[in-house]
């Protein structure tokens, strides 16, 4: 099939590469000339495991190419995917200007049938707006061209995006006619070998499904984080609680890890946007709104523990951070807890020494050169001379440090474990003051907040 993808970010580039890999002819188009120039040179602008190889293979085979030429891109694909960003507007609702701009562009250039598929995460009713934009752009040219619209939300996880796309749990397809359904069934047939994972539904339900999935997952995290706050205060160990409640198959072990709050480009903005959609319709979505409030509060937990340890004064302290990306296996810093922590530390007069395996460039891009930020070549260098070490992102490389050696490198051996990946008693043996998230004094932690 001939496919065009508008937007070569995390979603568009992965979608384009994977669809080319399954035999389609794909054109990826972006307005970011620098990004397209880099891709054309074979450089991958984001870090995503396995992506580089797939892109190179499919460019070499002639099934994948990149352009900034919208007319060329619209002429290429019978299927036109919209995979551009939908950042939060001032009131938290999704800003649709990029999505509707693409609809306008497709309408300005299309000369025969096109199926326009929204893959970006968009509020319920957006496909109607896309349809109206296409219709008005076509009408303005005084021509008649047939088209369908569809919703095909994306569920990939950054860090495992290729695998998620190639072996999806489900493919959600929202359509309002059989022609559109057939195109999308045919497109996704190679991903349905084992059993049919495609769930065809009406467009509005497909749009809502994406938000429902993200809000459900975000709710599990926020609830667990709230329970960890209770555990801290009653001197219980949330890790023992987690193991026991996860054994109940109605609850399960996924997404019940307490931590320092969720970040990334999806959960925070999607939770906010769904709450805003409900509010606009006169319904106060109480659970959804509190998921965001709990998460914002949780993002200060690392700073609170440091402030507690240092008696409320962090002036002149040097704090080492392990991990900056919002989660492992990505360089994405959007809404990352590390940003909240660094900004709080700087405001309190502390200095930061940090290391992340992939997100250092992104950190430099966001914060630039500053005296109170030192980006280090590895975790040990970051910890050297530090007054405390904070594990923010649970990259594999941080899992089993030599705590004795680490204690020797630091000015004072203080460890705040933002993901509960270390065993408190083991860390304490090396002389560390250990602070986990919701872990008890009985297991070697000193967690009671002032
Ligand atoms: N990142 C994820 O893990 C993920 C997962 C599922 C869904 N989503 C959703 O997918 C959408 C895209 O997310 P992302 O993380 O890939 O975004 P991104 O910001 O990484 O990339 C968006 C790209 O679109 C380009 N763009 C903007 N306007 C354009 C236009 N008119 N024509 C062509 N290109 C244009 C931008 O230059 C940018 O390269 C969002 O709605 C997001 O919520 C993201």
From TrEMBL:
The keyword NAD applies. NAD(+) binds at residues 30, 35, 86, 121, 158, 269, 334. Its EC number is 1.1.1.22. Residues 320-424 form the UDP-glucose/GDP-mannose dehydrogenase C-terminal domain. The active site is at 266 (nucleophile). Keywords: NAD, Oxidoreductase. It comes from Salinisphaera orenii YIM 95161. It catalyses: UDP-alpha-D-glucose + 2 NAD(+) + H2O = UDP-alpha-D-glucuronate + 2 NADH + 3 H(+). This is UDP-glucose 6-dehydrogenase. Signal peptide: none annotated.
